Amino acid sequence: MSRLYRVLSRLGQDLFGQDEQVEAEARAVFEQWFSQLDPNVQRMLGALITACDALPLLSRSLKPLSGLPEKSLTRFVQTVRHPYGMMILRLVKGLCGVVYLSSEGLTRRLGYGIRAYKQPSAPPPPEASLCVEVPSGGFEARYDVVVVGTGAGGATVARCLSEAGLRVALVEEGELATRTHTQLPLLERARRFYRQNGFTLAFGMPPVMMPMGRTVGGTTVVNSGTCFRTPHFVLERWRNEFGVQGMAPAEVEPLFDWIEQELCIAPVADEVLGGNGQVVRRGAERLSVRHQPLNRPQRDCHGTGVCALICPRDAKLDMRFSMLQPAQRHDATIFTCCRVERVLFEGERAVGVEGVVLTPAGGHFRLLANHVVLSAGAIYTPWILRRSGVRHPRIGRNLHIHPSVSVFSRMPEAVNGWSGVMQSYGVTEWIEQGTLIEATFPPLAIGYGLHPLPGWGPDHQRLLESVAHLAGVGVLTADEHSEGRIVCLPGASEPLIVYRLHQADAQRILHGIARAAQIFFAAGAECVYTDLPGAEQLETPNDLNSLLTSDARYLNLSAYHPGGTCCLGEDANRCPVDSFGRVRGQTHLWVADASLIPTPTVVNPQITIMMLAARVARSLLQEV
Q1: How many helices (H) and strands (E) does the chain have?
Q2: Which of 110, 195, 479, 505 has the fewest Cβ atoms nearer than 10 Å?
Q3: Helix 606-622 crosses helix 152-163 at what angle (to 10 degrees)?
Q4: Is residue 304 domain-resident?
Q5: pLDDT tens figures, 209-227
Q6: So what's the pLDDT on residue 418?
Q7: Helices 606-622 and 249-262 sit at what angle, rounded to 10 degrees?
Q8: What is the pLDDT of residue 389?
Q9: Is the peptide bond before 206 cis (omega within 30 degrees of 0)?
Q10: Is the domain of 75 the same as that of 157?
């Protein structure tokens, strides 16, 4: 571990300056955090840091990166331009951000702190109870329906079925996040409640970070909360290209109405919008493009800005409160720390699931049922199906991830972008062209770790000195032409995610970055930052042309909305699942999660997933 930290320390001092107190805090953070990571994640990060240290040796240097003198190190990292070398440097730079920006000394120096934007006038409401079963060893039980996963899809289908009188069991791999957990450091929350400790990666050029929740309530507990109805042109495409039935507006609008009412979905209020949202609103108004405060499931939000790391006031109405509590009032059972490994069959009929208990006692479990619903998400539902022997050729293919890239700007006024609702304001002018721009500024360490700002050495240090003046947006792009897939390697405990970004989608991303820059300049930005070579700092709108000729291999992408890997539709060759969630070739086996989504939704898909899950529940009830 000391060897790995030595590399991070050299880069960290280059990025954040030399400060003995900060260095001591960063080392303590790294040692405690790294020692608790999943062993697979430790090996991946260790290999990444080792490769980074070796980069100078590939350029005929006689010393590794950690052995270079200070000025030589800065010169070297500034001149790396090979796509693979830049990819490695970016990822390790992000790790430096995670570690060093968890230092209280550094964040205090930058003026950063987690605090409510709107001063609370009363303490948070009492914590709502949600009872879960944490097995102390192996077990077996029988229910009417077993639902694998407790996210947007699983929680919704479980509520609908339990309210109809069925005995429902939900199986969740993660643990229950409580209000007590909101007192933990942000890095510890990410480690405990994100899958693979927050380091899920889609392999390709460029690689894509894909943070996903691993907790009761799924990713809805650790997402921004942004909610859009599925655009009508997307639903129409599903009907025309995939033959999806039951998608007429008259059929889905009542479901959207019900979901929005149950989740108390409303636009972000001005009193918690924060400076970051105000910048984007101002720029959109001056450009006369469509814009709006984003809709979120909320109750008494005070704009603490840590939506992606468990709301401290339970103000974001994720699945724990909006769907799982009502399901539990109708006797649904939630098993936590249980990893489903396969579906059980008698002939072609699904009769239950089996897997392993992840508590220290360990053991195997088996849950038998009349119906099985897989809601493990677009990555793990096809993985479970493959491991269970289901062999439709398109299972695990057609992966779309809604790639996102961050764009920052320096404003003349203090923005304090981390204060207020984390994802607050949207520009919807270009949705029909596949681009959505959202004002978003995650907590400094975690957000910085995923989307490094440009620059190294003194340039980077000066940039961070003005961090209070930075505004940020995420540019989300419908990856219409790109496709990934889920690979099940023999003996592997996790699926391999492979993704190829198509050039046409890369161009759409670059145009999206240019549009975000236009919004910032219209709002009065002094400059706009990207980390694309040759376009790191844009001083005027005239500089935007340099963006459009950038090499797509240098894009710094993350993604939060994987879908499509078990897409629904009536084309049996193309769609492993029918229009209402039934898995082809099997009986009593259903899918109800983002893997059903056949094409990119363009917008945040939580409401889409819930709508599809409600349709699955209705169809299942017709067969009971």
Answers
A1: 19, 21
A2: 110
A3: 30
A4: no
A5: 999 999 999 999 999 999 9
A6: 93
A7: 110
A8: 95
A9: yes
A10: no
Whether residues 38 and 102 fall in one domain = yes
The enclosing H or E element of 485 equals strand 483-487
Name 349's Cβ contacts closer than 8 Å, sequence gap at least 6: 586, 587, 588
| The pLDDT value given to residue 15 | 94
Of the candidates 497, 465, 454, 503, the one whose C-alpha atom is nearest the C-alpha of residue 481 is: 503
Model confidence, pTM: 0.96
Q: Which of 110, 130, 155 is the last residue of a domain?
A: 110
pLDDT tens per residue, range 192-208:
999 999 999 999 988 99
Residues noted as catalytic: 561
- 157 and 95 in a common domain: no
- Residues present in the chain in total: 624
Query: What CATH number is associated with residue 354?
Result: 3.50.50.60
Same domain, 174 and 318: yes
Q: Does residue 349 lie within any of the structural domains?
A: yes
Work out the angle at residue 195's Cα, subtended by the Cα atoms of residues 600 and 256, and round it to the nearest 5 degrees.
40
Which residues contact residue 322 at a Cβ distance below 8 angstroms, ignoring those fewer than 6 apart?
Answer: 155, 262, 263, 264, 297
Task: Note whether residue 251 is domain-resident.
Answer: no
Q: In Å, how far are 86, 178, 256, 400, 594 from 149, measured between CA atoms?
A: 36, 18, 22, 20, 12
339 within domain boundaries: yes
| Residues 536-561, mean pLDDT to the nearest whole number | 90
How far apart CA 16 and CA 454 sit, in angstroms, is 13
Q: Which residues contact 434 (CB under 8 A, 6 or more apart)?
A: 477, 478, 480, 508, 600, 602
Q: Number of structural domains, the chain?
A: 2
pLDDT for residue 1: 63
Structure-token pair, residue 577: 């699942």
The pLDDT of residue 549 is 85
Whether 160 and 100 map to the same domain: the answer is: no
- 270 burial class (0-12, 13-18, 19+ CB within 10 angstroms)? exposed
Rounded to whole angstroms, what are the CA distances from 31 to 1, 37, 189, 258? 7, 10, 16, 47
Output the pLDDT for position 448: 67
Strand partners, 589: 372
Same domain, 63 and 100: yes
307 in helix, strand or coil?
helix
Domain that holds residue 43: 1-110
